[in-house]
Amino acid sequence: MARTRRYKKIEKNLVSRVTAAVKNWFSKTGALFVKFLKICDSKLTIMIVPHSQSKVVNFQTNVFALCLGIVLIVGIISSFVYFNRQVAGSNAEITRLINENRQTLASLDELRDENNNLLQTAKRFQSSLSQSLSLLGINSSSSVSKASMNDSDLSSLFDTQSQVTGSTKEATDIRQFNSYLESAVQPIEQIGKMLESQETLFTDIPNIWPVRGGIGHISMPFGQNVHPITGQWYIHKGLDFSTWRSGDPIVATANGQVVTVGFDFSFGNYVIIKHKHGIYTRYCHMQTVRVKKGEFVSQRQTIGTIGNTGITTGPHLHYEVHIGSDVVDPAKYVNVKLSK
Question: What is the pTM of this model?
Answer without folding.
Answer: 0.47
